[in-house]
Design brief:
The structure holds 2 protein chains of 2 kinds. In chain A, 48% of the residues are buried. Chain A has 16 helices and 6 strands. Chain A is mainly alpha-helical. In chain A, helix 5 packs across helix 13, helix 6 packs antiparallel against helix 7 and helix 10 crosses helix 12. Chain B has one domain. Chain B is built from 11 helices and 4 strands, in the order H-H-H-H-E-E-E-H-H-H-H-E-H-H-H. Chain B is globular. The chains are: A mainly alpha, B mainly alpha. At the A-B interface, helix 7, helix 8, helix 11, helix 13 and helix 15 of A face helix 4, helix 9 and helix 11 of B. Chain A: It is found in: Cell membrane.
């Protein structure tokens, strides 16, 4: 790997971080539109020119340290904007949705197990956090418990999913997402349509509701949640990336591309599907628990079918199976509607049209996943 | 006993509506092997265009009982048929080699677009709209059981439309072409069947059925709401899948099964009627575990 490649890639990453910051801060509509146009230009440049290939190969082929670019960029943005409550909340939301999408990528991008109930597993994590929060259990344990409960409920749902395929499997997850929402609406112990209050997180005796104070430096308490989400996101990102590079990832690819062929070669298709579904739901549940703690309040309307669609749109818009693409896509999907208040009422319509156009004219997403270079990986 | 018959009857009216939506899904799946999820919102569009045509008639002073119903149904069918064919032409046919998941997500988003467009562009569209009572709601007593006249007519209308569709598919040249395309598109094309025209005709036909279902929904509940299409679409899809995609009779069985499940729950647990949909969807998931490809399974063999 040449030094020039590294420098150009690092420059692109820095521009990306800068653009993210500008999009997050900009309040003027024209500034937002300008930054979006710049981002679009950047993505076209990356897609067309050699620099894009260089970047992709640096991101995909270097060892795990390259993933530390994410916390680096996140910390820089977070501390630069440490007083802006709303901006930091959006940044944390992007990271949390991104985390859920890492889970969906493991399920759908790697192993090809479809899941239209992302928001339901997200909600299971959130409601677990709400119920356990009352008992004074340490927050980090609660987050893990959110993931465990989501994974456990996913273990039941995997049975019908394994027996069916294609559209039939899609229906099962859609039906589960809808029944989860109706269940929450009518169940009074879970708060019914009004929802539940959630205890805020506290790490090592320090409540995350108190902002960091160091001398004259005073930060919004949302910065704590940005750091928490950033930490969990980075860990899951690196683990998922290692999963993809390992022999497990090769098995996932085989199961996704050709289940029959894979089973002929002795790959246990059902085993890997269960594995991907459970790991993915665990990650989605983690994200849901952090989301609930940050919001301090959850209601069934946070976990609708449209939210599942939003998560799937993120992974499809970014490029199915490409972990790196989750972040730009999540920024586009989560931040853009909040920023373009001018279009206000029309934002869901604009969003729907945007997704339809991308799927119609660029079906593999904005940053398609690179082909696995199997020979080189084996040589390592 | 009388109340049981009333439940049964209301369940049947729901069932015929679900069946009409499900037949659309099954037709689309038959010709192109795709799921067109914008179907539910096309249904809403049909109901709203029926409403608009009725308001137009009213302003002309032509809102006579039978004429009103016929015009409203015709307007709904024409609009939904045209929109269904348009979606097929612009988005689905060019994408038919893409993965099924992409088409599913894309049509879901098209549906969201239609739903939002109705909410934003129909005057005061975010609130429920009163649907005109095109049929008299006089109660009729048969053997101690009271039925609403409009429900009886709706049930008859629904069965009539389904029988007509079945006749169209089984006994006309168009139906023969649709079945040929469903069986094997390439061979059908080689036999001189205009593939694209037939696919578009199928889309128009299926969507027109959704238009009728939309008007029926409006008359039955006396109101129409921009978001009714999402749940009806999912129910119709479930019905089609449970019955077995690609089979018209499967879709009808599925529609009535779903309505029966909902009604059964309300009859057995009247206090917990909120859990109606939870029960119905759980039952659907269990049914799918037992019959992974629907009750009337698709006939196919997998070539390796």
């Amino acid at each position: 790997m040449k030094l020039t490649n590294l420098t150009t890639s690092f420059a692109v990453a820095a521009i990306g971080t800068l653009l993210t910051g500008v999009i997050l801060v900009a309040e003027n509509q024209w500034a937002v539109i300008g930054a979006l146009l710049a981002a679009a230009a950047l993505s076209i440049v990356l897609a067309r020119l050699k620099i894009g290939m260089v970047l992709a190969s640096v991101l995909n082929e270097s060892s795990a340290w390259v993933a530390l670019l994410i916390p680096l960029g996140g910390v820089i943005i977070g501390f630069a904007l440490h007083e802006e409550d709303f901006v930091l909340m959006m940044l944390a939301t992007v990271l949390i949705y991104g985390l859920a999408c890492v889970g969906l990528t493991i399920q759908f991008g790697y192993a090809g197990v479809i899941n239209f109930a992302g928001a339901a597993f997200f909600g299971i994590g959130g409601y677990t956090a709400a119920l356990l929060g009352e008992w004074g259990i340490p927050s980090l344990l609660i987050i893990v418990a959110g993931g465990m409960v989501a994974a456990a409920i996913g273990c039941i749902l995997i049975l019908p999913v394994l027996r069916t395929k294609g559209h039939y499997a899609a229906l099962i997850t859609i039906a589960f997402g809808l029944l989860f929402r109706s269940f929450l609406e009518v169940n009074h112990t879970l708060g019914g349509p009004q929802g539940l209050k959630v205890e805020g997180a506290s790490v090592a005796g320090h409540s995350l509701l108190d902002g960091i104070q160091l001398g004259s430096f005073q930060a919004s308490f949302y910065l704590n949640y940005v750091l928490l989400a950033l930490g969990v996101f980075t860990i899951c990102f690196i683990l998922a990336r290692n999963l993809e590079k390992s022999w497990i990832g090769v098995n996932f690819d085989a199961v996704r591309e050709d289940p029959i062929g894979a089973s002929v070669f002795g790959v246990n298709v059902a085993y890997w599907r269960i594995m991907a579904f459970v790991i993915g739901n665990f990650v989605i549940g983690l994200a849901g628990a952090i989301f609930a703690m940050m919001q301090n309040f959850i209601a069934p309307s946070n976990f609708t079918f449209s939210d599942s669609l939003i998560m799937l749109s993120i992974i499809v818009l970014g490029g199915l199976g490409n972990l790196w693409a989750i972040l730009p896509a999540a920024i586009l999907v989560v931040v853009m509607p909040e920023k373009l208040q001018e279009i206000g009422e029309f934002r869901i319509l604009v969003f729907a049209v945007l997704v339809v156009l991308v799927l119609r004219f660029r079906p593999s997403g904005l940053f398609p996943r690179a082909l696995r270079k199997f020979r080189r990986e084996v040589a390592q | 006993m009388a109340i049981l018959f009333e439940y049964l009857f209301n369940g049947a009216v729901l069932g015929i509506m679900y069946a009409l939506v499900a037949v659309g899904f099954t037709l689309f799946f038959g010709v192109l092997d795709i799921i067109k999820f914008s179907h539910g919102d096309v249904l809403t569009l049909g109901a709203f265009s029926g409403l608009v045509s009725f308001l137009a008639l009213q302003s002309l002073g032509l809102d006579l009982p039978v004429v009103g119903l016929v015009v409203v149904l015709a307007a709904a069918c024409i609009v939904t048929g045209a929109v269904g064919a348009l979606i097929g032409q612009a988005f689905i046919i060019p994408m038919r080699n893409a993965s099924g998941f992409n088409i599913l997500l894309m049509t879901l988003m098209i549906g969201t677009g239609i739903r939002e467009a109705i909410r934003l562009f129909y005057p005061n569209g975010a609130n429920p709209k009163a649907f005109p009572a095109l049929l008299p709601k006089t109660p009729i007593e048969i053997g101690g059981v009271f039925f609403r006249l409009d429900s009886i007519v709706l049930l008859g209308l629904g069965f009539g439309v389904i029988l007509l569709t079945n006749w169209l598919i089984r006994h006309t040249k168009l139906g023969l072409a649709i079945r040929a395309v469903a069986q094997d598109g390439d061979t059908a094309q080689a036999m001189g069947i205009p593939f694209k025209t037939i696919v578009l005709a199928t889309f128009a036909l299926g969507s027109a059925l959704a238009g009728i279902a939309g008007v029926m929904h409006g008359i039955y509940y006396s109101e129409i709401n921009f978001s009714v299409g999402l749940l009806l679409g999912v129910i119709g899809f479930s019905a089609a899948v449970v019955g077995g995609l690609g089979s018209i009779w499967g879709a009808i069985i599925g529609g009535f099964t779903f309505a029966a499940l909902q009604t059964l729950w309300v009859v057995v647990f009247p206090d917990a009627s909120g859990y109606r949909d939870v029960f119905a969807f759980t039952a659907i998931i269990i049914a799918m575990t037992i019959w992974p490809t629907g009750i009337i399974a698709e006939r196919y063999s997998e070539r390796v």
